[in-house]
């Protein structure tokens, strides 16, 4: 089963170009030239240098520069300019989006919904730069096939505070995890209201969300994991098979199978499946990409029930636990850019849609014992 029209397959003659671009675009964001050998980052002894991480003001400066220097029409704007009912963060910061491409299908790319997970921002800025300036066949194919909506810093307030959440500013100092706030009876934070309304305007074909996780070792080998591949509604679990006749269950697996195969060619990337509690698959409905797949209709803004498949990447290490050293910075950005590039080109060529979804089970993971849901654990074989 495939989701949507399957583009004709074409031989990836330009794979080397795409891969080279993926490695190159991150280099300007690094302070040195970290060695690529060995999937052994970040170091638990690494000291996080917060001063090197892109701030909200840095984001605005870089977006404005990209808009001015792009060859292929990068458009930068705020949600206030779009006209969403809520258009700023809890602390009053403008919420930025950049678009590029002229394709009929829209793609949603977001990062840093958790403020202490910074390299989604830098990875998306790097990809946006390539989309706006690179004239190679792969990047041109992406611009012709899709219109990209890039949100490099979903949570600017949390990013400035270097915390996971945002802080409600009206009558309380309550912290809200923005990635648990798209749900029935939720939408407590301004950012959730704003980006949800924008999502209903975009109606994307698919979405990708970039995160960080703590330091992790691969089940069975003990090797350091640098990137975990995640689907927030577990394939084969209690929810995803019942959505769109199982189409998203199939396509999200195919997406990650493709990423797994392509990134194994990079010697410094070691991947597994994202799990929690050692052996649980996540099946949460309050996350942004979960709500997208469920076709959530909040406040009557999605009466047609638009939904779209979505996946996420989890780079190892984050700033709050001090596990993200400067030596890991270039590698972290590179692997995110490489994963994004390979997935997007694979979707545009139709290669992803030809992958065997059953090979999802070949991606390293611990034996599954249950599903972590919003209300507790559902054991396997429920």
What does this molecule look like?
The protein is α/β, with parallel strands linked by helices and 382 residues long. It has one domain (15-379): Zn peptidases (Aminopeptidase). Helices cover 31% and strands 17% of the residues. The protein contains ten helices and 15 strands. The chain has helices spanning 15-25, 56-69, 79-82, 119-133, 137-145, 156-161, 190-202, 247-263, 288-294, 329-349, and strands spanning 75-78, 96-100, 105-111, 146-151, 166-167, 175-176, 206-213, 216-217, 224-225, 227-230, 271-273, 280-283, 310-316, 370-373, 376-379. It has an eight-stranded mixed β-sheet, with helices on both faces. The chain has a three-stranded mixed β-sheet with strand order 12-14-15, with no helix packed on it. The protein has a two-stranded antiparallel ribbon with strand order 5-6. α1 runs antiparallel to α10 (329-349), α2 packs parallel to α4 (119-133) and α5 packs across α10 (329-349). The chain is globular, with a radius of gyration of 19 Å. The two termini are 25 Å apart. Mean pLDDT is 88; it is low at 1-39.
Question: How would you summarize what this structure contains?
Answer:
The chain has 382 residues and is of the alpha/beta class. The N terminus is likely disordered. Its main location: secreted.
């Amino acid at each position: 089963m495939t989701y949507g029209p399957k583009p004709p397959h074409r031989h990836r003659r330009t794979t080397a170009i795409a891969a080279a671009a993926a490695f190159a675009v991150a280099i300007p964001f690094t302070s040195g030239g970290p060695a690529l050998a060995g999937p052994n980052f970040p170091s638990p002894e690494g000291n996080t240098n917060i001063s090197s991480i892109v701030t909200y003001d840095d984001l605005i400066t870089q977006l404005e520069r990209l808009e001015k220097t792009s060859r292929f029409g990068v458009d930068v704007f705020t949600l206030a300019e779009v006209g969403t009912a809520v258009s700023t963060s809890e602390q009053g910061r403008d919420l930025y989006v950049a678009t590029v491409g002229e394709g009929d299908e829209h793609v949603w790319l977001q990062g840093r919904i958790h403020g202490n997970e910074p390299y989604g921002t830098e990875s998306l800025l790097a990809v946006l730069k390539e989309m706006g300036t690179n004239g190679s066949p792969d990047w041109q194919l992406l611009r012709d096939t899709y219109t990209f909506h890039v949100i490099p810093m979903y949570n600017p307030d949390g990013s400035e505070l270097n915390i996971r959440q945002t802080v409600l500013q009206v009558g309380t100092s309550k912290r809200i995890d923005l990635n648990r706030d798209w749900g029935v009876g939720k939408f407590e934070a301004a950012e959730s209201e704003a980006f949800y309304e924008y999502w209903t305007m975009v109606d994307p074909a698919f979405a990708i969300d970039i995160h960080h996780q703590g330091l992790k070792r691969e089940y069975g080998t003990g090797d350091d994991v640098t990137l975990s591949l995640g689907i927030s509604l577990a394939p084969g679990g209690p929810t995803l098979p019942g959505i769109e006749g199982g189409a998203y269950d199939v396509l999200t697996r195919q997406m990650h199978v493709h990423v797994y195969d392509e990134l194994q060619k990079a010697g410094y990337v070691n991947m597994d499946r994202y799990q929690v509690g050692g052996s649980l698959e996540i099946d949460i409905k309050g996350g942004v990409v979960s709500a997208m797949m469920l076709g959530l209709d909040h406040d009557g803004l999605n009466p047609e029930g638009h939904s779209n498949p979505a996946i996420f990447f989890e780079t190892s290490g984050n700033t709050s636990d001090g596990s993200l050293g400067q030596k890991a910075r270039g590698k972290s950005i590179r692997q995110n850019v490489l994963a994004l590039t390979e997935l997007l080109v694979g979707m545009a060529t139709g290669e992803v849609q030809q992958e065997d979804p059953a090979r999802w089970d070949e991606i390293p993971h611990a034996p599954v014992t249950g599903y972590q849901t919003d209300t507790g654990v559902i054991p396997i074989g429920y």
